[in-house]
Design goal:
Blueprint (H helix, E strand, L loop, with lengths): L4 E5 L3 E4 L8 E4 L6 H14 L3 E6 L16 H9 L12 E5 L6 E2 L4 H13 L3 H16 L7 H13 L1 H8 L4 H16 L27 E5 L7 H18 L11 E5 L11 H13 L5 E7 L7 H4 L4 E4 L7 H11 L10 H7 L4 E5 L11 E5 L11 H10 L15 H15 L1 H6 L10 H8 L3 H12 L12
Parallel strand pairs: 3-9, 3-10, 4-7, 4-8, 5-6, 5-7, 8-9
Antiparallel strand pairs: 1-2, 1-12, 10-11, 11-12
Helix pairs in contact: 3-4, 3-8, 4-5, 4-7, 5-7, 5-14, 11-12
Length: 483
């Protein structure tokens, strides 16, 4: 059994039990109250316990976890002395830097097929009709072994479906040029934001997120998100995709002695803002079920009320930093946050939330039986690693010296839907039926794989496939399907 991780001291010492870290958690509090440092302390403890960590660095100040801290930080020294930490020693931790744009870490990629139509619909901000058409495009590609790897593959499939809309709509309903055009415009916007760097191969191997160093410490994976945060929907879509991939690929392990990975979802309120009901239900399912895959999820946000109650109820480990109560709405939020804790008769939780200093928190961790501990007002431990960013040169040195260096940096572009459509249907199919008619080419070609798809659409089997698309399958929880 892994040793408990000391995270704070109040009336008693407060521990995060590794065997309970897959029961999820919450770190909440107003800006500047100490959430980032609390995240750092938890990540350090998990790493020492041999647990890998994934977290997004939205402010660019988590890279310091790779370097040992020092006595020059007076606040850290004072906190260590206040809490009488006898075995406290500065140390850096094994890290892997990742970056969707490939600038501040190893490039992170996923294929369009892996991302799936549901998450892409969220990313494209599509309505229900447009989402249905996008799902159809994925189904046609999937049934005909047309890999959707990058955005040019998706663009080619959209154009093909648009050019043959009348043949498809008998089975799947009306497909208009306006609908296809709306999806294509969203795709173009995404490309302009640099998303073409994210979609492609080599795709991220999840095993590369769950590694340990020679000392048995879990590697802390840090995603550079300062640039990514300029497009909040892209940020949340990526993290949601990663959660869905972990759920889909990892085997069931029940309740292990310690998790395989703990996933910190910073700026969590973005995930739940204007989220479609269907997607919210899937998020709830993932959070509820992924614990049995040995994955813990900690949400970091300013206010617990940013997280839906159905998700909040699943977050057993809590660190609540100060909240402000300047308005009636603020006061209501403070009261609601206080009610989420197990009552401590010695503590007015609602009052304490507004009085907490920087680095103080209301802490409640799960006990060995999985019950929430009585909430205590406590000081969080100081981090052993450096607080704040590191020089770009040092970051690049860490990236170059990584065992992963060179693998994700080399882009692959194997034969996929774009190339196959060109080969099987010719330039005319991609250019559009109108262009073919203008050239006067009316001869009847040999049936292609797509001709067979169109015929099959009207068959009983085709109608059954249509019903399966409408239902959605738990095995592809968020619209993904692995090949």
């Amino acid at each position: 059994m892994a040793d408990p991780i000391l995270v704070a001291k109040g009336e008693t010492e407060l521990f995060l039990l590794p065997q309970m870290a897959n029961r999820h958690g919450l770190i909440a509090g107003a800006t500047g109250t100490g959430k980032t440092v609390s995240l750092q302390v938890l990540a350090e403890g998990l790493s020492r316990a041999g647990v890998s960590v994934f977290m997004s660095d939205v402010k660019g100040d988590l890279a310091g976890i790779s370097q040992p801290g020092s006595d020059s930080n007076k606040k850290v020294k004072e906190r260590a002395e206040l809490l009488k930490l006898k075995d406290f020693a500065f140390e850096g931790y094994p890290v892997a830097f990742w970056d969707i744009f490939g600038e501040q870490g190893h490039p992170v990629r996923a294929t369009v097929t892996e991302m799936g139509p549901l998450i892409l619909s969220r990313l494209f901000d599509l309505n229900e009709t447009q989402s249905g058409v996008l799902s159809l495009v994925f189904k046609i590609a999937d049934d005909n072994d047309m890999d959707l790897l990058d955005l040019k593959d998706l663009q080619a499939m959209l154009q093909f479906v648009g050019n043959n809309a009348q043949q498809f709509q008998t089975q799947y309903g009306n497909i208009t040029g306006a609908t296809i055009g709306a999806i294509q415009r969203s795709l173009l916007t995404l490309q302009e934001q640099g998303a073409d760097k994210f979609f492609g191969e080599p795709a991220l191997n999840l095993a590369d997120l769950m590694r340990t160093d020679l000392k048995g410490r879990g590697v802390i994976n840090i995603l550079a998100s300062d640039k990514l945060m300029r497009s909040p929907k892209t940020y949340t879509a990526f993290l949601l995709w990663l959660l869905s991939e972990l759920f889909e690929q990892l085997p069931e392990v029940g309740d292990p002695e310690k998790p395989k990975l703990v996933f910190f979802f910073d700026e969590a309120h973005l995930l739940f803002t204007d989220v479609p009901k269907a997607l919210l239900e899937k998020v709830e399912q993932v959070v509820r079920l992924i614990r049995s895959k040995g994955v813990g999820v900690f949400f970091i946000t300013q206010n617990p009320m940013d997280v839906p109650q159905t998700v909040l109820g699943q977050l057993g480990n809590r660190v609540q930093h100060a909240l402000r109560a300047f308005t009636q709405l603020d006061q209501k939020a403070v009261k609601a946050a206080a009610q989420t804790f197990r009552i401590n008769p010695k503590l007015d939780v609602a009052e304490a939330i507004t009085q907490l200093g920087v680095g103080e928190a209301l802490v409640s961790m799960l006990d060995p039986k999985g019950m929430p501990g009585i909430v205590q007002r406590a000081f969080m431990l100081p981090p052993r690693s450096q607080i704040g960013p590191i020089p770009p040169e040092l970051r690049q040195e860490i990236v170059r010296s990584s065992t992963l260096a060179g693998h994700y940096e080399n882009v692959l572009d194997r034969e996929s839907a774009y190339e196959k459509l060109q080969a099987r249907t010719g330039t005319a199919a991609l250019a559009g039926a109108a262009d073919a008619a203008a050239r006067g080419r009316r001869s009847k070609p040999e049936p292609t794989a797509f001709d067979n798809v169109l015929k099959a659409a009207n068959s009983p089997l085709g109608r059954q496939i249509g019903r399966e698309v409408a239902r959605g399958i738990m095995g592809a929880l968020l619209g993904t399907r692995r090949r």
